[in-house]
Design a protein that fits this description.
2 copies of one chain form a homodimer. Chain A is built from 6 helices and 7 strands; from the N terminus they run E-E-E-H-E-H-H-E-H-E-H-H-E. Helix content of chain A is 42%, strand content 23%.
């Protein structure tokens, strides 16, 4: 039976860098979520039925923290800082786009700056995807109370069905907040 | 590229009866979740790649409430009540199994009795599916505080990725708790 499908199923996946190794390495949870989507949703035989939208949100505060050794003397120094961060983000996206290209899966990847919760939900509003895929890592008690996870926020607030891929126990590093 | 897939992607979907029309009619939210899975995940060309496990949980208390007019005179009367309920549940499952058969999608359907939250999570533990799909309806404030939704519970506690399909605004009946 035909389901009246016009285009491919459009999946947005939110990815970020490894908190342990930094750019350009993807976090364990985003890498897991990506591989899960390929294996279980998209599967090897049906790449034409899907399009992947790969979104990386850069958090301005984290950027500043990563550059505590920088010296700022003029407005251009801040511009350089932003550009350097952006380039690092591009290298992260390269990893995912390469994987999609290898298997012939259509994709688009881009970077946004801001609060991941808000940015992801806004991008979902803008793009109207069929599914949002997000990875999830383990939080410590303090983070649970004050931050919560991006995956929890998006599950509640994103305007499309959301799949949260929890990190497998065997992938958890010694310090569970490393990702 | 081969993803090392052995079998089909196994999807558990939890379905229930319409709160408005009763058995054998499926609730708006489970019917939506089912159709969404067919259209967006399984798609018309990929039936061989998926298997659907259709679980209906009957809540013992609700059964009693539906049978306020029954007269109970001996233990067998209660047995009859349970059997009648089970038969109604089977008619509900028939709807979904028929749809799967029409489109050549492999499926299994079964009934369990108990608390939907616990039963669904236990069945996920037992079956190790790749995805759990649940529909979601709108709760009133009181229900939010005291009951919560099955979809919220399963998102947090089920041992597999969960997709919650929220009811579309245009499918919401005049009284939003009708489903």
């Amino acid at each position: 039976m035909e389901q009246g499908q016009v285009g491919p199923t459009r999946i947005v996946i939110a990815v970020n860098q490894s908190s342990l190794k930094g750019y350009p390495h993807p976090s364990i949870s985003s890498s897991n979520a990506f591989e899960w989507a390929l294996k279980k949703l998209i599967r090897s035989t049906r790449h034409k039925d899907f399009k992947l939208y790969i979104l990386h949100v850069q958090v301005p505060d984290e950027d500043a923290f990563n550059d505590v050794d920088s010296i700022f003397a003029c407005p251009d120094d801040f511009k350089d800082l932003k550009n350097r961060e952006k380039i690092k983000g591009i290298h992260l996206l390269e990893y995912f786009v390469k994987r999609c290209n290898e298997i012939g899966l259509a994709c688009e990847a881009w970077i946004k700056r801001g609060n991941p919760n808000e940015v992801i939900c806004n991008e979902v509003k803008r793009l109207h995807p069929d599914i949002l895929v997000v990875g999830s890592r383990v939080l410590n008690q303090l983070e649970k109370v004050f931050v919560g996870t991006v995956s929890e926020f998006c599950s509640k607030h994103a305007d499309c069905p959301v799949i949260v891929i929890k990190r497998k126990p065997e992938d958890t590093p010694q310090n569970p907040i490393d990702d």
